Amino acid sequence: MDSSDAEDNAREVDISMAELRNFDPSALSLSYNFRPEIVQKLTLYGNDLNILPASIVQFIHLRHLDISSNRISWISGEVARLPLLKILDARNNRLNNLPKEIEQCPKLLTLNLSGNQFKVIPTQVFTLNRLKELYLGGNQIESLPPQIQSLESLEMLYLGGNKIFQVPPHLGKLTNLRHLVLCDNKISTIPQELGQLKKLESLSLHKNELKLLPMAIVMLLNLQELTLRDNPLVHTFIKRLEFNTPSLLELAGRVVKTQNIPYNNRVIPKRLCSYLDSAKRCVNPKCDGVYFDSRIKCVKFVDFCGKFRLPLEQYLCSPCDTHEECCGDSKSVSAQMLRKALLPDNV
């Protein structure tokens, strides 16, 4: 290997899984044969570091710094004196804040803070207006402040696995977004303003509490992937999918029965009288409806002698807004609905 090859290798230094407890550039440069001032990528993945000390400034030409999967709870503000830094990967640590000086990193494009202990997004992040990728998954973030709209260059925003309950309309200002991950939160509504994200290609909303989507979603013409599983709206869709639309005969019969309109075989044909007499009352206690042929199957689990829960089959006149409202057992009913909607009748 000639000197130029050696120098190229020295520009990328990987000290992963080395059980490092202290970050000492002088000692490391001797052990791993590199000069800090020429290193462009430094990987310290999977060690036992508690802090990233001020000595990081010795890596003056660093472009990519990976300190993921350590125990780091503090990053020195000297990281801002790395003028060429483009990628900072600090996922899976113990961070709950960032040094104020990080807002002085002019070329930072990717910031990965997933798997830490953030309860709010550090305000310093909102000054990184060249940032293209921001990962904050697996933290404890509950809300997104209006300042997030300042990150106009963002193309990827990962916020999955937090405690977010509301998506602010300001998110619609991030018009360069291509990938938005909001899965595994507590979100119940999506603002119409998300329809302004014309470049959006993927939107992950699974494992939330969504009951509906705004019409603006159809305006996302570049959207190629939309995940919605494990949301109430999916169960509602399946219920309505399996519900056979009542015939005109049934609809008319329901009106006659629910309005208590009198009838006999001198007014209508005998077969219609028999049909009306066959009406069955909906078992939903909050419903006064009846049904004939078009119905919704519901399984209610009832305690038997305090030892077993027996599945009893019941029928409803139409889909309910919630499974609990109809049958009092959300998990059991949704499982039955999913099975009926997704499997053939003979399975």
UniProtKB/TrEMBL annotation:
<dbReference type="Pfam" id="PF13855">
    <property type="entry name" value="LRR_8"/>
</dbReference>
<dbReference type="Pfam" id="PF23598">
    <property type="entry name" value="LRR_14"/>
</dbReference>
<feature type="domain" description="Disease resistance R13L4/SHOC-2-like LRR">
    <location>
        <begin position="42"/>
        <end position="158"/>
    </location>
</feature>
<dbReference type="InterPro" id="IPR032675">
    <property type="entry name" value="LRR_dom_sf"/>
</dbReference>
<dbReference type="InterPro" id="IPR050216">
    <property type="entry name" value="LRR_domain-containing"/>
</dbReference>
<dbReference type="InterPro" id="IPR055414">
    <property type="entry name" value="LRR_R13L4/SHOC2-like"/>
</dbReference>
<keyword id="KW-0433">Leucine-rich repeat</keyword>
<dbReference type="InterPro" id="IPR003591">
    <property type="entry name" value="Leu-rich_rpt_typical-subtyp"/>
</dbReference>
<dbReference type="GO" id="GO:0005737">
    <property type="term" value="C:cytoplasm"/>
</dbReference>
<keyword id="KW-0677">Repeat</keyword>
<dbReference type="InterPro" id="IPR001611">
    <property type="entry name" value="Leu-rich_rpt"/>
</dbReference>
<protein>
    <recommendedName>
        <fullName>Disease resistance R13L4/SHOC-2-like LRR domain-containing protein</fullName>
    </recommendedName>
</protein>
